[in-house]
């Protein structure tokens, strides 16, 4: 009999209960007991949602991030966070730099979880790092899960992936040297789980779908020769987001009881692993997509698994491809989607049911799910034949793309000279990334307007006042290049999707990005094109309010693609081209409206990068082309900016340079400007704005701190090509935090400007 399970479940709550509870706690409006009560209810719902499966996942819940949780359970707390305070205070100070109680301190670095839009907190290891296991919180969660009466499968981040995701701030930077000591803690961890009556434990090693060198392969072997020696507990070694590739033979020899593979992102590797994985060990096949919202083709899934089931019998497990952390929670909440489109979708709760149905068909025969199979077939056929999907005009325009469409008229040096004359900006020009605080009043305006309780004209008048206030605030602060603040935008991707054709939207399709920050990705279901201008009216209005340049703010094609749920019937490269052509038209209209600077944000540029180096060139080919297709139609004196945040850029600096943006702004504050080290050897040709303060933390940096970060960049980049800006948009911050931070930032830039003049 095929066994069913998931690799994890979303932890924000069906209606984002945890998000609201966290923000209430951080604001000092509730206590830890009240926060824990909400968390307990979220976990109970999650276990109930999985109750028809053979195993329920537990220990995968987190208040902020599961990588941080792993570090805390291992006793890893950097020195700057060590105070005599409640554990939850230390936890949130590591995550946010601030908590109710405790002093403000720079938070842990944040970056993307493999090739997803989920952000994890980077553990900081020290020279001679010791590990002090404390898993009381997870053990209690497991006991609570066992009380449901279902067999429980705890979820752990594996030791080798943990070290790969960590950084060391001092001494020898090789994190692998900590493996022997770390394994002792993991052995204690597994023994503690066994003592709770746990039979199976899921240990995630997503690093196994990357191309590992000999040292890291050796580390995997060392780790699981050790952990696999325990007879009292069974390990399900879990991989996802791709195929095992060259690591397949290594994994096949490990003494673990089971292996999970991703049969969605790694579908081409399923046959190979089925051939080499021992038949007396469990093979868990992730056949239901944990990262997208399209309904599973049940017939195709069953046909894929039947030959494996015939060979493996009881040793086949059926699962989601990865954790459902990356999926919205419940499609049944969606009461505004049209019937046809809704029939094409499945969220986490529905995906659990799909896992159950696929296993039922294998165990009891395909006729046992005949009704559900007919519904699945109908949905698949509907999507394939719907007239809403394809637009001949879009296809014709894609076919007509030429190489010249992806190149600016002149090189950077020529453009830069024209732009300096055109813009007349000072040394160290100051700006922000785009958004300003989305206050409660702004959100209330949007709710009232969308609910029909506020007229279109009254809404527009109110948004105009918000934009005028943001322009006034920036002029008072002394910023050099202004933005309109994006008061009219709910989300940097959803806003554009609402104005482009080929997108659909949910009401409750929320997915955790980090901590309490949730996003609601649009659904790309058909060909994308622009039927009307997207941003011109509001940007033109803002520019008319000031003599300083106001940036036109666009979200780039790769990010719109990456932060949406994309269709899966055409290539991602083609979708990116469609979006790029729509943005190209918008750039032209912004120029006609007199906008001199246009920012095309690409924070997801590295996020979509394939995890295997051998597959990355093909990605860069289409991703770079998409950005250039969107931007290259601009005139030489129009300055094109882009923004990237919370990514490791050093390995992709060539591709970033190939974008040929006149100015790029990047995150550097949480990483203590480590990202700038690449410029020690690489001569970046254009202008750059290294983020000088962390907007994901509520703390306000002082002038000296900002000035020191700016000064450090001058060792790598000449002052005339440096911009001064925050790490990211200011949407999630309050004005009480934004004003002093920006005031300090402007003061720091002016100090350095005066110093340069004096020299």
Question: How are the SSEs ordered, and which strands pair?
Answer:
Elements: E1 3-4, H1 17-26, H2 32-49, E2 56-58, H3 66-73, H4 87-96, E3 110-112, E4 119-121, E5 124-125, H5 136-146, E6 152-157, H6 159-165, E7 167-168, H7 179-195, E8 200-204, H8 214-227, E9 234-238, H9 248-252, E10 258-262, H10 270-276, E11 282-288, H11 298-312, E12 316-320, H12 339-342, H13 348-364, H14 370-385, H15 392-399, H16 412-423, H17 440-450, H18 456-477, H19 494-499, E13 500-504, E14 511-514, E15 517-519, E16 523-530, H20 536-543, E17 551-555, H21 557-562, H22 572-592, E18 597-601, H23 616-631, E19 639-644, H24 653-658, E20 663-666, E21 687-690, H25 703-713, H26 735-758
Parallel strand pairs: 1-12, 2-6, 5-7, 6-8, 8-9, 9-10, 10-11, 11-12, 17-18, 18-19, 19-20, 20-21
Antiparallel strand pairs: 3-4, 13-16, 14-15
Helix pairs in contact: 1-2, 7-8, 11-13, 17-18, 22-23, 25-26
